[in-house]
Automatic annotation (TrEMBL):
It comes from the Bacteria. One of its GO terms (biological process) is DNA replication. GO terms for molecular function: ATP binding. This is Transposase. InterPro entries: IstB_ATP-bd (IPR002611), P-loop_NTPase (IPR027417). Transmembrane segments: none annotated. Pfam families: IstB_IS21. It comes from Paraburkholderia panacisoli. Gene3D superfamilies: P-loop containing nucleotide triphosphate hydrolases (3.40.50.300). The lineage of its organism: Bacteria, Pseudomonadati, Pseudomonadota, Betaproteobacteria, Burkholderiales.
Length: 202
């Protein structure tokens, strides 16, 4: 009854269950468990905690990649001293997300070119990804062009629906959008589609 379970079979089952972190760690943890006389629940709990932590890490990495955020523009690299009119406390509150993303609120950043708006928006985006939210950073002109193509192929509703997976869309360089009716129209539809449901930062 005390015969050791076949290690190769355990590895196969963990692979089938898609538990790669446990698959990598379980032999070392089992050895430590034997030496320190852990209860089975402690061994299982420790392995599951590592699996969940690794999954969370990979999920954040995926979300950061899909966001198209500049990796160098974070809160740590933003110089609040250069823009004293920006409240650091307010920005840090926005970076938690729960006070406004859940309401589908929109944030507007105003200021002259080169004033740090893109950096600040990106920094908030990075912090929100770390908090578990999904973010998309895009130049406004680029997303407008994509939505125009979708409209021409009668796929605009589908294209807008796909953007719903993002808790926040950061629209950068709004001033560079041409003011013709077609571009204004699809931009309005994007804003209207997300109004009070999903957030924008402009």
């Amino acid at each position: 009854m005390n015969a050791a379970y076949d290690a190769g079979r355990i590895a196969l089952m963990l692979n089938e269950l898609r538990l790669p972190t446990i698959g990598r760690l379980w032999t070392d943890f089992a050895e430590r468990s034997d030496k320190e006389s852990w209860q089975a629940s402690r061994l299982l709990g420790a392995l599951l905690e590592h699996e969940l932590a690794e999954r969370a890490k990979r999920r954040i990495e995926r979300h950061r990649t899909e966001s198209h955020l500049d990796l160098t523009k974070t809160l740590a690299t933003f110089d609040f001293g250069v823009v004293p009119m920006v409240s650091k406390a307010h920005v840090m509150a926005l970076a938690t997300g729960d006070s406004w993303l859940e309401k589908g609120a929109t944030i507007l950043l105003f200021g002259p070119p080169g004033g740090g708006k893109s950096h600040l928006g990106s920094a908030i985006g990075h912090a929100l990804i770390d908090a578990g939210y999904r973010v998309l950073f895009t130049r406004t002109g680029e997303i407008v062009q994509k939505l125009q193509v979708a409209r021409q192929s009668l796929q605009l509703p589908s294209a807008l629906a796909k953007l719903d997976r993002f808790d926040l869309i950061i629209l950068d360089d709004l001033s560079y959008v041409r003011k013709d009716q077609a571009e204004t129209s699809v931009l309005f539809e994007l804003i209207a589609e997300r109004y009070e449901r999903k957030s924008l930062l402009i």
